[in-house]
Amino acid sequence: MKSPLLPTYARAELSFEKGEGAWLFGRDGQRYLDFGAGIAVNALGHANPHLIKALTDQAGKIWHTSNLYQIPEGERLAQRLVENTFADVVFFSNSGAEANEAAIKMARKYHAANGKPERFRVITFEGAFHGRTLATIAAGGQAKYLEGFGPKVEGFDQVPFGDIEALKKAIGPETAALMIEPIQGEGGVRLVPGAFLRELRSLCDQHDLLLIFDEIQTGVGRTGKLFAYEWSGVTPDIMSVAKGIGGGFPMGACLATARAASGMTVGSHGTTFGGNPLAMAVGNAVLDVILEPGFLEHVQKVGLLLKQRLAELKDRHPAVIAEVRGQGLMMGLRTHVPNTEFIAAARKEKLIVIAAGDNVTRLLPPLIISEAEVAEAFERMDAACTSIETELKAAAQRGAAE
Q1: Please, which residues have CB within 8 angstroms of residue 325's CB and are 6 or more apart in sequence?
Q2: How crowded is residue 12: how many other Cβ atoms within 10 Å of its Cβ?
Q3: What's the CA gap between 71 and 92, in Å, rounded?
Q4: Alpha-carbon span 182 to 161, nearest angstrom
């Protein structure tokens, strides 16, 4: 039967009926270890009791009022984010793309409010992914996302990843901001060195540019800090957040300093659903857990264990694994075989992993993953690599016979 859904996804022949912690239960009757977490969304795993209670309690009170009225839980969540980051103000949205739209508009508005409306261009980096709106695909600059959607939205310039000299040459009188992911997720789990981020901060200060960090995938504990920028000692002016902040409930946020947000006045931006009571209740519940003493230390400890086991996997299977990348519980495996083959082999072992660019497979388990579950994932990846090696040997033998 033909699906009535718009065919924009290459969906696997697999669906799930429930989840528990780091495990998913398929409608095929099988139990799967989830190292995808809904693409870094289910930060606290599936069916987390604290999140369930927060959502159901709020659902019994009020779902939506719009931002025409005060939303106390939103005020509380914003205050907690401010207290635990560089930011002074927060704007809540429904997704990461919307958070990035707010960040881009804020950067442009800052310069316009300071008498320089010609400064509207944002420099980004090749391999970046900032969302699927017309503006954010232009920001990402990847041809495969731009094709067929008409002229590219004006105002974005891409420079090669990690090329500071190319960046310096790209800065001009129309440049408003630099925008970067501390770790490129869709681009292949490519870690931006702290020294490079510090150079970006220096250039922004020198040229009165705003520094935007896209922490949609790296944020909310994913790397072992609340936000990845903390590892570098660099603070941005604006930061976009989504995915893990809602623990599975759709929400995003744009955080900023008072200076960066100075142009955003009443009526300059808005949203119907952003910051709704349901999202705010869940967002606060997520922070309850993430900010508990010892939680981020757990992420760091288990992340280090995962990195060590992946290094062992590479040593065991050099014909399959080419490189281990990442930080914390945002890890990547670049493979000699197509990543689709590795993902399919892992799925046969009942392990869920996610594709990324540069022929990388992402490992994005829930942050509540245990050491025993990391060991279980290793065993399943080891088996997947062994099956791939068997296929490679068989193919080589067939080629020799011909």
Answers
A1: 188, 189, 190, 191, 331, 332, 333, 334, 360
A2: 10
A3: 11
A4: 12
Those residues whose C-beta lies under 8 Å from the C-beta of residue 87, and which sit 6 or more positions away, are 81, 239, 255, 256, 257
CA distance 103 to 257: 12
Render pLDDT for 184-230 as a digit per residue (tens, 0 to 9): 999 999 999 999 999 999 999 999 999 999 999 999 999 999 999 99
Taking the CA of residue 157 as centre, how many other CA atoms within 13 Å lie in the half-sphere pointing to its CB? 18
* pLDDT value of position 394: 85
The pLDDT of residue 398 is above 90: no
Check whether 396 has a pLDDT greater than 90: no
Burial readout 274-310 (b: 16 or more C-beta within 10 A, e: otherwise): bbbbbbbbbbbbbbebbeeeebbebbbebbeebbebb
First-to-last C-alpha distance (Å) of the chain? 41
Q: Read off the pLDDT of residues 263-293 as tens digits, 9 standing for 90 and up.
A: 999 999 999 999 999 999 999 999 999 999 9
CA distances from 42 to 22, 37, 179, 222, 368 (A): 9, 5, 25, 11, 10
pTM of the model: 0.95
Bridge partners for 212 per DSSP = 179, 238
CB half-sphere exposure, 131, CA atoms < 13 A:
26
What's the CA gap between 252 and 265, in Å, rounded? 20
pLDDT for residue 192? 96
| pLDDT the model gives residue 338 | 97
Angle at 346 (CA atoms; ends 343, 348), nearest 5 degrees: 115
Other Cβ atoms closer than 10 A to 115: 8
The reported pLDDT for the residue numbered 393 is 87
Residue 320 scores a pLDDT above 90: yes
